[in-house]
C-alpha cells in the first residue's frame, strides 16, 4: 500500500510549473513554485512544522501545551494542522477586520479564535499584540512561536525550499523572486541559493507600494500577507540584490490572469511576485531561469480580487470592460 501516515508528511516538495502565458515572449523562462499544494494550502505549513519541532526539542512546548499566535491566516492553518496531530491546543488572535470566512477556516481546524478591535492603538490593552502577549503569559503551558523573530521560520526555507528549487532546476536557476512579509521565505531560500551557487543566483524581493522594504513609510495597500510597516528580525537585509515595487492594481490584474490563463487560482501576493518575476525575465537572457514562489491559493480572495465589483470599486477594473460586455450578452 502506498500512503502517508498523516498530512504533516505532505508538507513541502511542491512542484515547479512553467508560466506559459503570462510570461510568453520574454527572453527567460519563468517557473512558479506552487506552495498552495501544501496540505494547509500555503507556504506557511513549512515554517509551522519547523517551529513546533524546535519548540518541542528545546522544551518550551510540552505535551498538552497551547500555541498562542497573532495570526489571521496561513500561519494559523499550518500551526493548527501540526497542533492537531500532536495534541496541542491552538489560540489565535486576530483583528476584527479579518473576514469571518478566514476566522471560520481556523475554527474548522479546531483552533480557538480571539477577535480584537482594529481601531485601537498598539499600546491599548485590547490591541491584537497586547492580547496575544497576555494570553501567552496567562495560559499555563502556552508558547508563542512569533514568526517575525523565530529563527526556525527562515531556517525551514534554508533547509527545504532552497534545496528543492536547486535540485528541481538542476542548478540552472539564475534568479529567485518572492514577496516579503516576515522575510522568512526570501531570507532562508535566498541564503541557501546564494551559498550553493557561490553567489551566482540573484535574489529579488517583491514588495507592495508603500511598504518599508521598497522605501515606503508603511502606508496602506490591499495585497495581503506581504510588505510591512516595520523591519522584522527575520528579514536579512544582506540577501536581496534588488527589491521591485508593485502596485495593488498590477498585482491583482496579474493574479486574475494566473487563474484564467495558467489555471492557477492563487492569492494576491502571488500576482505581485509574478509581476516582479516578469520584469526580471524581461531584462534576463535566454539561458536564464527565473523561479518565483507563489505562497497561497486564491479561494480566500473570491469576494475581493476575483470579484469584478470589488475590483471596480477600487478602480482596478474599468466598469465597462470586456467582462461586463459578456455579462450583458448573457
Ligand atoms: N504571501 C502570503 C499570502 C503570506 O501569508 C505571506 C506570509 N506573511 C507571504 C506572502 C510572505 O512570506 P514571508 O512571511 O516568508 O516573507
TrEMBL record:
> In which pathway does this enzyme or protein participate?
Amino-acid biosynthesis; L-cysteine biosynthesis; L-cysteine from L-homocysteine and L-serine: step 1/2
Identify the keywords attached in UniProt to this record, alphabetized: CBS domain, Lyase, Pyridoxal phosphate
- Does Hydrolase appear among the keywords? no
Please list the reactions this protein catalyses. Answer: L-homocysteine + L-serine = L,L-cystathionine + H2O
Name the EC number(s).
4.2.1.22
Q: Which cofactor does it need?
A: pyridoxal 5'-phosphate
- Membership in a protein family: Belongs to the cysteine synthase/cystathionine beta-synthase family.
Write down what this protein is called: Cystathionine beta-synthase
User: What is the organism lineage in this UniProt record?
Assistant: Bacteria, Bacillati, Actinomycetota, Actinomycetes, Micromonosporales
Amino acid at each position: 500500500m502506498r500512503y502517508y501516515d498523516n498530512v504533516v508528511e505532505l508538507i513541502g516538495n511542491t512542484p515547479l510549473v512553467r508560466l506559459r502565458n503570462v510570461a510568453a515572449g520574454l527572453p527567460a523562462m519563468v517557473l512558479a513554485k506552487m506552495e498552495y499544494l501544501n496540505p494547509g494550502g500555503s507556504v506557511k505549513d513549512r515554517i509551522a512544522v519547523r517551529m513546533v519541532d524546535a519548540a518541542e526539542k528545546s522544551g518550551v512546548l510540552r505535551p498538552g501545551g497551547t500555541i498562542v499566535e497573532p495570526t489571521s491566516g496561513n500561519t494559523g492553518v499550518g500551526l493548527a494542522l501540526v497542533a492537531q496531530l500532536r495534541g496541542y491546543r491552538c489560540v489565535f488572535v486576530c483583528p476584527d477586520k479579518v473576514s469571518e470566512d478566514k476566522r471560520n477556516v481556523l475554527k474548522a481546524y479546531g483552533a480557538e479564535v480571539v477577535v480584537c478591535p482594529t481601531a485601537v492603538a498598539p499600546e491599548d490593552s485590547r490591541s491584537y499584540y497586547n492580547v496575544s502577549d497576555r494570553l501567552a503569559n496567562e495560559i499555563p503551558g502556552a508558547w508563542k512561536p512569533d514568526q517575525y523573530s523565530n529563527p526556525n521560520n527562515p531556517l525551514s526555507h534554508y533547509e527545504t525550499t532552497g534545496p528543492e528549487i536547486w535540485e528541481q532546476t538542476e542548478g540552472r536557476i539564475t534568479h529567485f523572486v518572492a514577496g516579503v512579509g516576515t522575510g522568512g521565505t526570501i531570507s532562508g531560500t535566498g541564503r541557501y541559493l546564494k551559498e550553493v551557487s557561490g553567489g551566482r543566483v540573484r535574489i529579488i524581493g517583491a514588495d507592495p507600494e508603500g511598504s518599508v522594504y521598497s522605501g515606503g513609510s508603511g502606508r496602506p495597500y490591499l495585497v495581503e500577507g506581504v510588505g510591512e510597516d516595520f523591519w522584522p528580525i527575520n528579514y536579512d537585509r544582506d540577501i536581496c540584490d534588488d527589491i521591485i515595487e508593485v502596485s495593488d492594481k498590477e498585482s491583482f490584474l496579474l493574479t486574475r490572469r494566473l487563474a484564467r490563463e495558467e489555471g492557477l487560482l492563487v492569492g494576491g501576493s502571488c500576482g505581485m511576485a509574478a509581476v516582479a518575476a516578469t520584469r526580471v525575465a524581461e531584462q534576463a537572457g535566454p539561458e536564464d531561469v527565473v523561479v518565483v514562489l507563489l505562497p497561497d491559493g486564491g479561494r480566500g480572495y473570491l469576494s475581493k480580487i476575483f470579484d469584478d465589483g470589488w475590483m471596480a470599486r477600487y478602480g482596478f477594473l474599468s466598469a465597462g470592460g470586456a467582462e461586463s460586455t459578456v455579462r450583458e450578452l448573457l
